[in-house]
Amino acid sequence: MVRLALRELVGRRIATGLALAGLCTACLGFAVMTGGAQYTQARLTGDLSRAWNAQYDLLVRPSYAIGTTEEELGLIPQNFSTGLSGGISYAQLAAIRSLAGVQVAAPLVVVGSVNWDLGSFTVPLGKSDSSVMAYRITYKEQIDAGLATYGMDDHIALVAHDGSVNFPARSRTPTLTTGGRTIECAYPVFCWAPTFCDSGVCQPYPDPPSDGIEIWQPVPIAGVDPVAEAQLVGLDKCLQSGRYLTAADVPQRGPDQPGTNIPVLVSARSFVDTNFTADVSAWKPPPPLVAPSLGPNAPGATKLTPVTVSANDLYRQHLPAVANDTDFWPIWRVGHAAYQAGRDRRLAPIPIPADLSVYGHPNFTLLGGSPDELRIPPESKAGWYRAVTASYYSRDAGDRDWQVVGIYEPSCLPGFDALSRAGMETYAAPQVTLSDGRVLGPDRSVGGYIASPPLILTNLAGADWLMDSTRFIGQNSQAPISSIRIRIRSLPQKLELAQRRLEQVALAIREKTGLNVDLVRGSSPQSVSLKLPLGGTDYGTAELWTKKGVVIQFDRAVTGQTIAFLALAAGLGAVLTTQTGFTAVRRRRRELAMLRALGWSSFDSFRLVLLELGILGALATVASVAALLVARAFAPQMPLYMLAAPAIGVVAGLGGGLIPAALAARAKPAEAIAHAQWAGRNRRLNSKLLLGALELWRAFRIEVVVSAILIGAGSVAVGAVVAAGSSFVQHLDVSWLGVYIGGQVRPFHAILAATAACVATLAAAQLATLAYLERGQTLAALRAMGWSKLDVFKFIIGGGLLIMLPAVLMAAAILAGAALAAGAPQSAVELPVEVAVGTGLISGFIAIACPAILALVARPATLLRGE
C-alpha cells in the first residue's frame, strides 16, 4: 500500500507539488507564527510588567473631586490635585491604614498657593563720563512657548556722573540733584547718583547703577506625611541640601519675629515657563536737565543689548533668601478647570472672569512709588480657567516665616515608567504639547489653565496650621486631606490575581470610608486633544491624562490574540489539506471506482487516500524542519521549540485528509465509472469567461467555496492589519502603553497576514491548476478544433474570477460591517477595504497564472496522447 501511494504521488507530479507547497507554507507559517507569538508574548509580558510596577496602587479622593469630564471620558486629568481643597478627615485616613492589605497610605494636603516676591529683575546700567545718561527700559514677558508676549512696565532711568539722590523725611518720592539742578524722580522715572541721602543722612550709593522691577509668582504648597512619602516615592533620598522633614518639626512662634516658623522642604526648581526681557535704549539728555517723560525715544537714542532672565532663574536666586522675609499674603485656594467639547471632539477649557481682588492686601505697597497693580501678572488679567478664593486672616495671625529645612530635586523622584507615567501628579510638571512638539508650561497666573505642582512641602503639622479655619477664613480644617495614595501589601505576581486583590482592598476602603477609589496600578497616559487660546489665537494642543486599568486589558487581549492567531494558523493548514484531499479524490473517481470493481474494499480506498495525504504531510514537515535549520544557522537566537512546530504538517495532513478519504470510501463504483466528463461545448454560451466559471462550479463546487473563503480570510487579515494601524486593539491604542504595544505586535500581525494570504493564494492556485489538468485533453481537443490560446486563457480566467470576486466581496463586507459595528467613520475603513480588495485580486491572479502558463506552453498533440 505504501509503494502504491508513493507511485500515485510521483505519477501526479504537478498536483503533488502544489499540495506539498501548500502544506510546507502552512507548516512554516505555523512555525514562524508560533515563534513570533511566543516572542511577542514574552516581550509584551515584560512591557506590561514594567507598566504594572507603579509607585502606588490605589488613589483615594473625595467624591466632589471627580469632575464631569473625568466621569464621561473615564480619564484622570493631569495635576488633578491642584484643584482639590480637602475632603478627607484624619479619621478616614486612620481607617484606611487599619486595613490588613494596606502597606502604605500617604496623604496629600493641598493647602493652596501663596504669592512670592522673587526679587528684582535687575538691568545693569552704565555711568556717564560726564553729566547725566538717560535710559529707557521696556519690560515684557513671553509665555506659552513664546506664543504670547505681554508688556509689563516702562521706565526711564537717569544715571548722574555726580550729585546725590535724596529721600526727604516723610516722603518716598526721591529727588536727583546734579549740575546745580534738582528734579523729582517720580514713577516711572528712577534716578541714581554717587551719593545716597535718606532723611539728611548721606552715604555712597550702595549699589551700582541699575533699574529693575519686582517679579511675583504664585507658589503652591502641599502637606505630606514624611515617613509615608519616603516609603512611597523616596522623597528623603532626593535632597539637594539640608535635611529631611520629621514629625518633630512643628510650627512655632519665633522669639523676634511677628510670624510663625513653618518647617518646609522647597523645590530646587520652578516649573513656571516664563521668560522676561528688558529692551534698553540710551541717550544723553541736553541741558538744562528736566525729568523726561515716556514717549518716543529721544533723537540719537542708541539701542543696547536686551537683558533676559527666566522665572526659574529668579526662583533659584531667591531660594537662599526665602527664610529672611515674613510671608504675609493670604492663601489662595484654586479650583478645577471645566471643559466643553467642540464639534471636532476636542476639549476646550471654559474661561471665567479673573477676580483680581484676590491680589489685594491692606499692608501691601510696592517700593519706589510703582502702582500696586504691577504685582498682578499680565496673563492673570487676561482671564482665568480656575476659580480662585483668597483665605485672609486677622492682624498677624497668619504671618509665617518659611523655615527651610531642606531643598529637594523633583527630577530625582522615581516617576512611573514612560509606558505608565501616571500618578506622580504631586511632583511632576504638567505636559501640554503643541502640534510642532513644543511643550507648554505653567505661567504666573494663579487661575491659569496649566497648573504648577507644589513647590513647598511641609509635614502634616505644618499643613494643619495652614489649614486652620479659625486662622485662615474658608480653609477646611475638619477634613484637610485632598487625596491618599495607597500601596497594597504583597500583591500576587499574576495580573489577574493582583487585579482581584486590588479590587478587594478598594471595595473595603469604599465601604469603610465612603470615598472614591481608583485603581491606578497598571494605568497609562493618554493624549487628550485640547483647544487653547494662546496669544489671542486658538491652538490645537495635546495633554496627557491617565487611563486606568490599561495593563489588565492588554494582558487579557495579548493572551486571547495569541491563542486565536495560533488556532487560525492551524486552521488554515487543515483547510488547505482538506481541499487538497477533495481535489485529489475528485480527479481520481474513475481510478478508485475501478479499484473497487477489481475487489478493493471501502477501507482500502480510505487507507490509500489517507496514506497519500499523510506522506505529503510528513514530507512537508521534513522540508520545513530543514528550512528552519538553515534559518537557525543564520539566526542562532531562534528558539529550538520552533523546530517542533512543523509537526503540524503531519497532523494537518492526516486530519485534513479524513473527510476526503471517507468520501473516497463511500464512492459507488458504477456511479463513478459512469460519471460524465465535460465535452468542452455549451451551445447556449459563447463567452469563454462565463463558460470557464460555470464548468469550474459544476465540477468543483466545494473546492471553489473553500478557495473563496481562504482568499477572503487572507484579504481580511491583511485589511485588518492596515485598519488597526498602530495597534491590535483599536480602543486601547490611545494610551501611551497602547501605542507602544501596537508597535510591538505589528510585526506579528504582518506575519499572520502574509501567511494567510500565501495559504489562500496556494489554495486557489492548486484548484485552478488541478481543474486545468483534469480538462487538459478536452482543452487540447478544442485547440485542435479551432480554439486559440487566447480562448483557453479566457476560459481559465473565468474560473479564477469565480473564486476571486466572491472572495473580495466577502472581505470588503466583513471589514465594512466591523467598522459599522464599531462606529468607525467612513474615512477610517476606506483604505483597509481597498487593501483587502487588492490583496484578493492579487491572490486570484497569481492563482490563475499557474494554469495559464501551463496552457500557453502545452502542445495539444502531447496532451491528446496523455503524456
Task: Describe the overall structure.
The chain is an alpha+beta fold. The protein is built from 21 helices and 30 strands. The strands form 6 sheets. Strands 1, 3, 12, 13, 14, 15, 23, 26, 27 and 28 form a 10-stranded mixed beta sheet that branches. Helix 2 (13-52) packs across helix 13, helix 10 (550-587) runs antiparallel to helix 16 (701-724) and helix 19 runs antiparallel to helix 20. The longest helix has 40 residues, at 13-52. The radius of gyration is 41 Å and the shape is elongated. The relative contact order is 0.14. Residues 41-49, 416-424, 675-679 and 726-745 have low confidence and may be disordered.
Primary descriptors:
single chain, 867 residues, 10-stranded mixed sheet, 21 helices, 43% helix
Q: Which blocks of ≥5 consecutive residues have pLDDT under 50?
A: 41-49, 416-424, 675-679, 726-745
Percent range of helical residues: 40-55%
Number of strands: 30
Radius of gyration equals: 41 Å
Report how far the terminal alpha carbons are from each other. Answer: 25 Å
Short characterization:
The chain is α+β, with helices and mostly antiparallel strands and 867 residues long. The protein contains 21 helices and 30 strands. The strands form 6 sheets. Strands 1, 3, 12, 13, 14, 15, 23, 26, 27 and 28 form a 10-stranded mixed beta sheet that branches. Strands 4, 5, 9, 16, 17 and 18 form a 6-stranded mixed beta sheet that branches. Strands 2, 24, 25, 29 and 30 form a 5-stranded antiparallel beta sheet that branches.
